[in-house]
Design a protein that fits this description.
Blueprint: H1 2-27, H2 36-41, H3 47-61, E1 70-74, H4 82-88, E2 94-99, H5 102-111, E3 118-122, E4 151-154, H6 163-176, E5 183-190, H7 195-200, E6 203-206, E7 209-211, E8 221-224, H8 225-234, E9 238-243, E10 257-262
Parallel strand pairs: 1-2, 1-4, 2-3, 4-5, 5-8
Antiparallel strand pairs: 5-10, 6-7, 7-8, 9-10
Length: 263
Amino acid sequence: MIAGALRSIRTLGFRLASPLDRLWLLATGRGHLPPLWLRRHTGSVSAFESAARETSAYLDRLGLWKDLQVVLDVGCGAGAMVEEFRRRLPGNGRYAGFDVHAPSIRWCRAQWASDPRLSFEVAPVASPYGSASGDPIESYRFPLGDGDADLVLAKSVFTHLTAEGARHYLAETRRVLRPGQPAVVTAFLYEAGTPAVEMAFPHAAGDGMRVKSRSRPTAAVAWEKSKFISMIEEAGLHLQWHSEGYYPGRERRDAQDVLLLGL
């Protein structure tokens, strides 16, 4: 309850600061960005643009921008990746984004209403980041048909899911992915028995999960590597490539592990 009240106060503060932030964005040629309070909802404000650039660079390095027609952006938030996809998709391409946070989806719909290639959906599932009174996550069906997607992107999604939610999202990724096409997901992965990781994520939560906070377990979730790979394989996917992320005691690379998955 106290944490929820503090988050509400923080959000109010960002809302009050949004007019000044908007003037700054316009002055610096970044008027396409969402309001300050929506950027903060997805994490560090300073990382909103840089994280999108880093993700785009990964897609470049892996050669995944070529021949894209249909993209699914899982947990799209306030659309950090949308401009990149708009620029890269062909005229007959399609982008579908969804998120549990209704205000972010409303903003995306208004911001890109003029582009018929783009669609945004609220996932009506119960979530600390959306509505607490939503449906069970296992009932949600990704907004694409079977085998429709040329690319599924799930950035900073599995860091906020329970084991049940993670299994379901992996299964849905398998369902919508076209054979021969990739999915890119990020996660915090660790090797069992690593003291530094256990300090960063001090609480064991079962199913190979470790969390930073018992009171808010989905605030930051780390997965034991072999367990997460088993979940990937159980969903009918396989790991094609893996870039290790950063943990205390490990040489610093990116904040989260990046995994390339295929059928």
